[in-house]
Specification:
The complex is a heterotrimer of chains A (about 400), B (about 325) and C (about 325). In chain A, helix 3 crosses helix 11, helix 6 (about 190-205) crosses helix 7 and helix 8 packs across helix 9. The model of chain A is unreliable at about 20-30 and about 55-65 (pLDDT under 50). Helices cover about 35% and strands about 15% of the residues of chain A. Chain A contains 11 helices and 14 strands. By secondary structure, chain B is mainly α. Chain B has a single domain (about 50-330), classed as Orthogonal Bundle (ABC transporter involved in vitamin B12 uptake, BtuC), CATH 1.10.3470. In chain B, about 75% of the residues lie in helices and about 0% in strands. Chain B has 15 helices and 2 strands. Chain B has a two-stranded antiparallel sheet with strand order 1-2. Chain B is globular. Chain C is built from 14 helices and 4 strands. Chain C is an all-alpha fold and about 325 residues long. Chain C has a single domain, classed as ABC transporter involved in vitamin B12 uptake, BtuC. In chain C, helix 4 packs antiparallel against helix 13. The longest helix of chain C is centred in the C-terminal third of the chain and has 28 residues, at about 305-335. In chain C, the strands form 2 sheets. Chain C has a two-stranded antiparallel ribbon. A two-stranded antiparallel sheet of chain C has the order 2-3. The chains are: A alpha/beta (about 400), B mainly alpha (about 325), C mainly alpha (about 325). Chains A and C meet through helix 1, strand 7, helix 8, helix 9 and helix 10 of A and helix 4, helix 7, strand 4, helix 13 and helix 14 of C.
Chain lengths: ~400, ~325, ~325
């Protein structure tokens, strides 16, 4: 008998706890996934509601004035001009994006002739496994490590250990703490991406539209930083944009599809746009919109188009060309914003070579990077890749990655 | 692999020492140990970077957390149960520690203690439902796998805890007496767990429960109390591992340790603990743990890439159990 | 909810109530009741939840998981487990997608091949479990590693696109419902009939419940186990086709954590993990229930951060309801 009472009490307690949780309303005002790091929204474009409100010209952010804040390897051998062996440890292997960066690295290695680079890493974007991989390559004794961090703080101790062992360290795609690596090749600043995304969304749904976000997971550092920058930028430039809700999709295309369907059903015509925040969430979300027949009737093929412009749902996101090709070709997605990951990997190897050859020193303000020309040093110890690239119906056929 | 022939060389037991030796070598742990030695030998031929003290110690540092959780898991699997929630308890207790310190302003020392308290409580909850309500362990811990992970996400609102003071990293990133600090904890814990399992009435009770729970109950073993104890112990160790992990990685997030339970279980079952209960040992678990990590490490140092490595490890997991099964069956004469 | 059923059980009851009690006393009944409760609560809070499109989406999104959960149920009823199903779905979906973009390849071949390769993988697992007596958890852990790593080795995770329109089976509709829903319904019914009424189906329960007894009654546990794992492979094959044909572009990768979703569905569906009891109907209902929970929580604005915790709690509550039900039944039989 007591067992039954005990079980009943437990169940009531559990059920009550469930009943109370919904009272915790979604609080989008404070987007906290990005660790409350400071945001720096860029200037509003001409004609945006926020642009009028902004007082006097904003002061230029003083990024260029920053001192070099990277780390330096201890007792690294002088290998200027000699053959070097590099390892590239991306967030994870086996996805299109890092295949593309890896391809760029191979191209650079081939051009340079005196660089050997292999890509290896965990099969899941997991910081624990990534640390183990780097640890092993320090033991193996490479000349340089290229990395894209799963977690900026978590990866830093092992990178510092690499520097202490005289191994050069250059990051790309996702940074560590500055002193844990020498340089970081920055494909695009968080606030730049945020601006590009919000601007493309506003171009499709107008400055008073409403949208939801399908992200990979709330704990994904890059996605969270983008969202918090988007929030800040939207607050500043488009205060009337309606930010409905953010949902997770766990790097699972099918889950992204399902979550987007749920949002479409929940908000119906009250939702004008969806952001797909990861390379997996974006196609999943686009498929949900296309299969619901809600693509913008202006450009889309008849079988996926919405009956009228009012009910159409815009999809905006960052992604690689191959996975979004079907949606760009049928007009469901107007444009895909992304830097060229092949160039990113390519630049990373050139930066590493310049560091080893002593051509890129803490005093440098720019670096030569083969076919990409001269790249600028920003933020103390970062190399800026250049403006993001926009894939559209016209040029998407030229890219295959 | 190559090891299978070795035991057959010792087939004529004539005197007690030889037969004793034969029993040790032919035990599950003995076979596994031989496999490990053979693997290490082959791997050391592939690269000279593998068999160095520094490398081996460093590798053990990486598996300390899994090892700590594998100890109670051995007890649990011997009783015929399982705990799938360890990875989530690990994540929850680490995040509670981080946020008590970072957000609620608790002293870090107290937060570290709370880390283990939270882990213990989470494990106790599992145990309580399993013994009092009778929820099968797999179902209970499958549910709390989702629940505890969800709580970690909710508590932290997906933020990370970071910026710990320097002394916090002593345990995870530095050495004590020439050996990575956390390895001492694993070593001591493994010895204690090994003795408790092999040499105490409690340990014998665990085996008895795995072989025949009803029989164990009738012979006066406090089955429920023992079960409650091992699941609570499992939670405590997951909490401890969460602390060590945070100290090693220097930050934590709600999703840390996702899927860790499979690594823990793999080490235990590779170590010869029967998933159906009744047999297994701490020594075996430790060999299983080390074998997996050395394979990963040695293959990588030998130039095999990560994707191929997990294929090989998958195959070896199956093969090692297969070899052991065959040897045991022949030795057991059935 | 439990309180009412418990008190209903106490009173001397009129005939119609007895029938009702019979109906809800099974795990299927408990799940249906939970589902109904959820629909009422969420539907009251937000009527849009009840829109035809949303219900249809919930069913669609349950389908591929439910089909895999049918196979998983059989495996669990036979006293085993298969952790490699998520990796299998990834591999088979990739094979299917890759075949579909080979020029000149008839579409039905890319649908059929996973249905052949799936049972082949299942046969390997089954052989290792049944004949070499390696525990299923070990075999499937190993198999998961092999398939996952092998897929990356073979494809590097490339995106597959430009599948022919005819390939997209899961995007077709029939009588207002998406095609995968019919797969789910028909396969559930067929599997339920097979496992309940045919000797080869009953044998699975016998093997899971008591191997020695099964052996004595002339059933070969090895053959049954082989059959179970091949059946599981077939279900996973069908599931992977439903998975692959849902999208315009698919990544050749393993969806993480999918095996956990499938196992959870089977287990919440009342398939006892100790083997020997349970039905596939329960598993399918549980899949729909879990999906409806995931969907409904968004409709009633549960804080996104707490969503996972709420789902975990609801799983626990469902399991507890089932447990109390079984205990009451056992008490009734005794007394």
């Amino acid at each position: 008998m007591s067992k039954k009472v005990f079980a009943a009490v437990l169940m009531v307690a559990l059920a009550l706890s469930v009943a109370f949780v919904p009272a915790v309303a979604q609080d989008e005002v404070r987007w906290v996934g990005a660790d409350d790091l400071p945001v720096s929204p860029l200037e509003c474009p001409e004609g945006a509601p926020g642009a009028a409100m902004a007082e006097e010209p904003m002061e230029e952010p003083e990024v260029a004035a920053l001192e070099y804040n990277g780390g330096q390897p201890v007792g690294a051998p002088d290998l200027a001009g000699q053959e070097i062996v590099l390892v590239d440890v991306p967030k994870l292997i086996g996805i299109g994006y890092f295949n593309a960066t890896s391809l760029g690295m191979q191209q650079a290695a081939e051009e340079l002739g005196n660089v050997k680079v292999t890509t290896d890493g965990p099969t899941q974007g997991d910081i624990v496994q990534q640390v183990a991989f780097i640890e092993q390559y320090i033991t193996q004794g490479v000349n340089g490590i290229l990395f894209a961090a799963n977690d900026p703080v978590g990866i830093s101790p092992v990178l510092r250990r690499a520097l202490e062992s005289g191994i050069h360290v250059v990051g790309y795609d996702a940074n560590s703490e500055p002193d844990a690596r020498e340089w970081f090749v920055n494909q695009a600043e968080f606030n730049g991406i945020a601006k590009a995304k919000i601007d493309s969304m506003v171009a499709e749904i107008g400055p008073e539209g409403s949208f939801a976000i399908v992200t990979s997971s709330f704990t994904a550092p890059n996605q969270s930083r983008w969202i918090s920058e988007m929030w800040a930028y939207a607050q500043k430039c488009y205060p009337d944009l309606k930010w409905l809700e953010t949902v997770e999709s766990a790097e699972d295309q099918n889950l992204a599809f399902q979550q987007t369907q749920t949002l479409l059903n929940k908000y119906g015509p009250d939702m004008d746009g969806v952001f797909g925040m990861s390379s997996v969430a974006f196609p999943g979300a686009a498929d949900a919109v296309a299969q619901a027949g809600l693509c913008s009737p202006d450009d889309a093929a008849a079988d996926v188009a919405a009956p009228d412009e009012e009910s159409a749902v815009a999809i905006v996101g960052l992604s690689t060309p191959n996975q979004m090709r079907p949606f760009v070709e049928n007009g469901c997605v107007e444009s895909v914003v992304l830097w060229n990951p092949v160039d990113l990997g390519y630049a990373a190897v050139y930066v590493m070579r310049a560091v080893v050859d002593g051509k890129l020193t803490p005093e440098s303000t720019e670096v030569e990077a083969g076919r990409l020309g001269t790249l600028q040093v920003v933020n103390g110890s970062e190399i800026l890749l250049g403006p993001p690239f926009v894939y559209t119906q016209d040029n998407i056929a030229d890219f295959d990655f | 692999m190559a090891v299978t022939e070795r035991p057959s060389q010792l087939t004529e037991p004539s005197n007690p020492i030889v037969s004793r030796l034969r029993a040790v070598v032919l035990s599950k742990e003995g076979i596994l140990f031989l496999i490990m030695i053979a693997a290490m030998f082959i791997l050391s031929l592939l690269t000279d970077k593998f068999l160095t003290t520094n490398n081996l110690l460093n590798q053990l540092r990486l598996v300390t957390e899994i090892g700590l959780m594998a100890l109670p898991m051995t007890f649990i699997i011997i009783t015929g149960g399982i705990d799938l929630s360890v990875g989530s308890i690990f994540g929850l207790s680490a995040i509670v520690m981080g946020f008590l310190w970072q957000d609620s302003g608790w002293p870090l020392e107290l937060a570290i203690i709370m880390c283990m308290v939270v882990g213990t409580m989470a494990g106790f909850m599992n145990g309580l439902f399993i013994v009092r309500v009778g929820v099968p362990p797999l179902i209970m811990t499958l549910a709390t796998l989702a629940l505890y992970r969800g709580m970690a996400l909710g508590v932290s609102e997906a933020r990370s805890a970071r910026g710990f003071p320097d002394w916090f990293f002593d345990l995870g990133q530095r050495q004590f007496l020439g050996i990575p600090s956390q390895l001492w904890i694993l070593l001591i814990a493994a010895i204690i767990a090994g003795i408790v399992l092999a040499r105490t009435p409690f340990g014998r009770g665990i085996y008895a429960m795995g072989n025949n729970e009803l029989g164990a109950r009738f012979s006066g073993i406090p089955v429920r109390l023992y079960k409650l104890a091992i699941y609570t112990f499992s939670g405590f160790m997951a909490g401890l591992a969460g602390y060590i992990f945070t100290s090693r990685i220097s930050t934590t997030r709600a999703d840390m340790g996702t899927g860790l339970e499979l690594d823990v279980i793999a080490a235990v079952v590779l170590g010869g603990t029967s998933i159906n209960g009744g047999s297994g040992s701490i020594v075996g678990t430790m060999i299983g743990l080390v074998l997996i990590q050395l394979l990963k490490n040695g293959l990588l140092l030998g130039g095999v890439k990560g994707d191929a490595t997990i294929v090989i490890i998958g195959a070896i997991l199956i093969l090692a159990i297969l070899i052991n099964n065959l040897v045991q069956r022949r030795a057991g004469g059935d | 909810m439990t309180a009412t059923t418990v008190s209903a059980a106490r009173q001397s009851t009129p005939g119609w109530l007895k029938n009702l009690r019979m109906l809800v006393s099974g795990q299927e009944g408990a799940l249906t009741l939970s589902l109904a409760l959820l629909v009422i609560v969420v539907g009251t809070a937000n009527p849009r939840f009840l829109a035809q499109q949303n219900i249809s989406d919930i069913l669609l999104n349950s389908s591929y998981i439910a089909v895999a959960a049918i196979g998983m149920s059989a495996v669990i009823i036979s006293g085993n487990i298969d952790i490699s199903v998520g990796a299998m779905i990834g591999v088979l979906a990739t094979i299917s997608g890759q075949l579909s973009i080979v020029p000149g390849m008839p579409v039905w071949i890319s649908w059929l091949v996973p249905l052949i390769v799936g049972p082949m993988i299942g046969a390997v697992t089954g052989f290792l479990v049944a004949y070499l007596r390696i525990p299923a958890i070990v075999v499937s852990l190993g198999m998961m590693s092999i398939l996952k790593g092998g897929l990356i080795l073979a494809t590097g995770g490339v995106w597959i696109y430009n599948m022919p329109p005819a390939y997209k089976l899961a995007q077709q509709s029939f009588l207002g419902l998406p095609v995968p829903v019919y797969f789910m319904l028909v396969l559930t019914i067929l599997a339920a009939l097979w496992m309940r009424y045919s000797p080869s189906g009953r044998a699975i329960y016998a093997v899971g419940g008591n191997k020695e007894a099964a052996l004595l009654s002339g059933i070969s546990p090895r053959v049954v186990l082989m059959r179970v794992f091949m059946f599981n492979g077939l279900m996973v094959g069908i599931s992977s086709v439903l998975f692959a044909t849902q999208f315009s572009s698919i990544q050749s990768t393993v969806p993480s954590g999918l095996e956990l979703t499938i196992i959870t569905s089977a287990v919440v569906g009342g398939v006892s993990i100790l083997g020997g009891t349970g039905t596939v109907i329960g598993a399918t209902l549980a899949t729909i229930l879990l999906r409806a929970i995931g969907n409904g929580m968004i409709f009633i604005n549960v804080s996104a951060y707490w969503l996972q915790a709420v789902q975990g709690t609801l799983i626990l509550v469902t399991v507890l309801i089932d447990l109390l039900r079984r205990r009451r039944q056992a008490a009734q039989i005794r007394g």
